[in-house]
Amino acid sequence: MAAKASEGVEASFIEHLLELRTRILRSAVAILVLFVGLFPFRNTLYRLLARPLTAVLPKNGAMIATNLPATFIAPLKLALATAVALAVPYVLYQAWAFVAPGLYQRERRLITPLLLSSTLLFYLGMAFAYFLIFPLAFGFFARSAPTGVRVMTDINHYLSFVLTLFFAFGLAFEVPVAIVLLVLMGVLRPETLSGKRRYVILGAFILAAIITPPDAFSQTVLALAMWGLFEVGLFVAYRVRPRPATADIKASPPPAAPPPAVMPVSPPRRRPKRRRRPRKPPPDAH
Q: In this structure, are residues 58 and 142 in contact, taking their beta carbons and an 8 Å threshold?
């Protein structure tokens, strides 16, 4: 019996590994297909990515390539990064399909809105960085250049800089989803998070200083964004936290005790009548 049980466990483990391999291969194929489709438009994608910088550069400013292969490698990297970003919903779906068989029905109902909200927030963080942070940050840097200094940047360095900011702001916008997940799993309580608000704010500034490039503007904006998203996640967590199950069923009276068993009463035993002895006649008196 023990040998059969171990064989069953081993077979189940191998099936899980094969399922995981299938999900990973499907995700990789999706990214590859998107990359092949985006490859002819790699230079157009790079022009769109560089627009927030080129719009604020002075007349004598420009983007440069410090080595010849960079003119091909940088747009190629951007096409691959764009393919990965576009494939995020499909990759998350494959991850959900892998873990779904082991989830309860209530958890399955929660996974779908959480996946949709996390994907939307990730894209929203990237859009926030592109349309708001990049113009402000690049305009500030361009105006801060000393007189006589031509503002130019290498295309590879610029790509690494903006991809880091995209990734940082995309992850930062996942804070509400992380808070809701922790509360739903019972790891944290909203009251606990509310009481630790000052530490959360300090942690947001420290994390922003770690994951963003070394400029105070991006770090401050990212920290403030994470703080605001923390408040949003806390607001949602107060409303979706699991409530203690309170049964409204009236207490039923305790079951009545069974009647005592009636023992059969035997008729009283009659004492046998005692036979009276004949009284001796009194002796004659002489």
A: yes
DSSP 8-class letter at 101: G
Single-letter residue type at 102: G
> What whole-number distance in Å separates Cα of residue 143 and Cα of residue 203?
31
CB proximity list for 188: less than 8 A, separation 6 or greater: 179, 182
CA-nearest of 158, 179, 24 to 97 is 24
DSSP 132: I
CA separation for the pair 239, 235 (Å, rounded): 7
- Paired residues of 280 in beta bridges: none
Angle in degrees, 0-180, between the axes of helices 105-128 and 88-99, rounded to the nearest 10? 160
63 and 53 in contact (C-beta within 8 Å)? yes
d(CA 172, CA 122): 8
Residue 251: predicted pLDDT: 43
Cβ-in-10-Å burial (0-12, 13-18, 19+) of 281 comes to exposed
- End-to-end, the C-alpha distance of the chain in Å comes to 113
DSSP assigned state of 248: -
Kindly state the percentage of the chain with pLDDT values over 90.
23
Q: 65-122 pLDDT, tens per residue?
A: 888 888 999 999 999 999 999 999 899 888 888 887 776 777 677 777 888 888 898 9
Query: Could you give the angle at the alpha carbon of 207 between the alpha carbons of 201 and 212, nearest 5°?
Result: 125
Q: What ranges make up the beta strands (E) of the chain?
A: 62-64, 152-154
pTM to 2 decimal places: 0.71
Q: How confident is residue 191, by pLDDT bands cut at 50, 70 and 90?
A: confident
